[in-house]
Amino acid sequence: MKTTLQRIGMILFMTGFFFSVWAQEMEVSGTVYDAQGKSPLIGVTVMVKGTQKGTVTDINGRYRIKAEKGNTLTFSYIGYLIQEIKVKKLQLDVYLKQDEATLDEVVVVAFGTQKKNAVAGSVMRVADQSYYLPSVIFPYPREVNTEEYEAFKENRFLSAIQHPLSTFSLDVDGASYSNIRRMINQGQMPSKDVVRVEEIVNYFNYDYPQPSDGYPVRIVTETAVCPWNKKHNMVRIGVKAKEIPSETLPVSNFVFLLDVSGSMFSANKLPLVKASMKLLVNNLRPKDRVAIVTYAGAAGEVLPSTSASDKQKIMEALDNLQAGGSTAGGAGIQLAYKIAEKNLVKGGNNRVILCTDGDFNVGVSSPTELESLIESKRKSGVFLTVLGYGMGNYKDNKLQTLAQKGNGNHAYIDNLQEANKVLVNEFGGTMYAVAKDVKLQVEFNPNFVNAYRLIGYESRLLNDEDFNDDTKDAGELGAGHTVTALYEIVPVGVNVPVGSVDKLKYQQTKNDVSLPKFADSKELLTVKLRYKEPDKDVSRKLEVPVLANRMNLNASQDFNFAMAAVMFGQLLRDSDFTGNAKYSDVINLARKGLDNDPNGYRHEFIRLVEAVEQLEK
Question: Exposure winner among 12, 94, 190, 213, fewest CB in 10 A?
């Protein structure tokens, strides 16, 4: 009897031990390939079936996820069949087969039907209410669209006599373009206020010469005939920041400020944030440091400042994050800056990296409150990078405010490839400023210029007197970055598309005043630039004149592409100044500027314009 009871006890013990081992959580990793095993797939969504645990594959198709033995993992990717695999081992490579039915299905859009291959990149299925972005699948119900964008009116033509100066803050954000791309890839035409033309132009890099003579920036100019109005001219002003090899950049003190509120639940939000930050961490040096602050209903420090030599510890902290709760963004910003200042590296790269959809709803949350908060932090020596994620409730207006008022820059991350572009390929430009409070002022010579129009930069305009005022905040330039501004010019002798007023009775108008003594100058205009070194409070000035006889009959490849980007933005905005431009003209002009395209971004632009052209039809 005793022996029998002992045997039963031993069986029960072994059974319990077996199930305990079986249910123990472990880390499963592997690579997701196409069916042939030739190409790793970037941005595949990996979920533990029946749970909210998920991740996306990185730039090498790799994934890591915690699961229990016996759990089922689902692998989902646009254009491929969903695959479910039971967890039986720690290493699990997956090969996805193409879904021929999905590839050929009809896309239903707000303005008709299109074949899937007529829409660049992605599909929106109406039947099952799932929705997709390029490279990532998001099998969640669609939200009511509550996205917010700041309304603005595009710049008009100004008389060169009445308004000889044009002054604005020189910024390098490219968020608008990637956001537009996301919408078009969903079969949606972006509204006017989504389109900031200067951000379309500046999404792309241009081949400007390196700075010289010890300056961190350099100005280059070019003039040509306007492609959408042959009676007008175009002036391109390019600014190049000095390049610094990544290994020689100063020590980085980063604070990841991550939104983990309930609105970040979707796979194109927090899971994509975590994958993006892992890309960044993988490229940090041992001397760099990372702290992690999260916020939902309240803010908290998840990881104290940690050496990037301990990448595993940082990765584990990221893996453990889950979404839920309200959004106390203001409290998160305050805590992140406090930690960044506590670990401040003198002469180093001190920066808060905010990842959010911008849907702040607890505490400091309105654009005005956020502006006051971030302005108070501007003199801390800590810079700000704002990375926007998600759709449906994306608050672009708030993130623009934070970036522009807080010594910062702004990017929109719609997929892992974009994260790789911003955080890896353009690390120096995104993460390390070589010049701050960068302002541009152009003086036009009325002997040659009847009127001019600054294309874009509507939210960055400054008063003329702000140019010499070192207390006025302006944009930042990162290492190796290029910034481009374009003016459309009406030459003297061509009718000015601006309104007129009656002659004044009680004072002379500017038209009656004789021109200054230097009016016989052969200069078309003069470009002036002011900047401060990152740790200085006094600005320096650069000045470059542009001769009136330097008009190019054949624009450079870069200039052609920049003008194509402008045409595209103006057509999307239904601008008053599109002239006779068509999407086919954009494509033809852009094709003249494809030589300088090592990463394929310009070719992608052409495919995007072709998709819009089809949607318009």
Answer: 213
